Amino acid sequence: MKRKFGDRANWRRVTQRQFKSKYVEGDTFTGYATFYGINALRDPLWKTYGGHTFRIADKGYTWLQYYPKGAHYVVTAMFDDHGSIVEWYIDVCKTQGVTDQGVPWFDDLYLDIVVLKNGEVFLLDEDELDDALSRGLISVRDYDLAKETARDVMKLIKNQAFPYFAMSLEHYRTGYVQSDSSNSGG
Hints:
The chain is 21% helix and 46% strand. It is of the alpha+beta class and 186 residues long.
């Protein structure tokens, strides 16, 4: 299992970044919300899902990330340099936490869900989850947690009850995550 940090400080592709994080308590969301702005990078990052190829990281791109308290997933909304949503990326995780410096993190459980702006949904990395179990990198309990979490999230998405799509669009439009932040980095 790999621990991933919201500030992506070890991501060598990005050479200049802006990072802000804040804890939110509200009716629709409680947890950490982060802003990750890409100011300069070595090479853009492209991904292909279902025959569609998208640039998900480039100069001027913004990622808003949500760490819902008590949930076994983390949601990243990726916006291009014109402010249009590119995709939502949902990491299934075992646990979440925050460093002493206020940087949220999660322990990745391999499964990922990608939702494109056209509504297409992709479940990724089932083979990685199976391999991690067979190699003893995760327990059967972790495996079951990952499968159950992905199934539950995909059901919420199908039933149009997953709040992070509209929330992230609104937060990007209003600059919500960038305001009143406690942490920044470059």
